Amino acid sequence: MSWNHEKFSMLLHKLKMNQFEAGEWLGASQKSIWNWSEGSIKPRKSKLAKIARLIAERTDIECAYAITGVMLSKNFKKYTIDKSQKVVFITYESHSETFDYKTTGLIEYIAENLSAIKSLSIYKCKTYIGVNNE
Q: Which of 15, 46, 68 is the last residue of a domain?
């Protein structure tokens, strides 16, 4: 596994994401994001798989591999973008999930899993996120 800080920096630029936003997205400090972007340090090996999954959700598994060196399963669920909507990103210790803001039963799901949830973010996306099982 090898970290490619140049491709990571290009991805953040392409996503129009600042270091603070990237830290929120990847569960890291702004300083860590800066260090990862500059290549002065690499993410811990224990975080690489999580980072790869999060990158693959926004892009694809090839991009995630090119940045993190982590090869994800071809059955990985990819989220694709369509029309403007609010989405909810829920992060657990070992994985993350994405929901349409209007998902039936979402509040109940969150309430039932509250103790396991590490973070929860609601984003207004320029486009709608749907699931594509490739």
A: 68
Q: What b-and-e string marks burial along 51-86, b requiring 16 or more CB atoms within 10 Å of the CB? A: bbbbbbbbbbbebbbbbbebebeeeeebbeeeeebe
59 to 43, 62, 104, 118: CA distances (angstroms): 19, 8, 26, 23
Contact 55, 11 (CB under 8 A): yes
Which residue has 């982590």 as its token pair? 70
Written as six digits, the tokens of 124 are 């207004």
Is-contact 74 134, C-beta < 8 A?
A: yes
Q: What's the domain count of the chain? A: 2
Q: What is the pLDDT of residues 52-95, one digit of tens each?
A: 988 888 888 888 889 999 888 776 665 544 445 677 888 888 88
| Phi and psi at residue 109, to the nearest 5° | -60, -45
Which residue segment(s) compose the domain that 18 sits in?
A: 5-68
Final residue of a structural domain among 68, 94, 116: 68
Helix (H) or strand (E) holding 77: strand 77-81
Name the more confident of 43 and 88.
43
- Does this model's pTM top 0.70? My answer is no
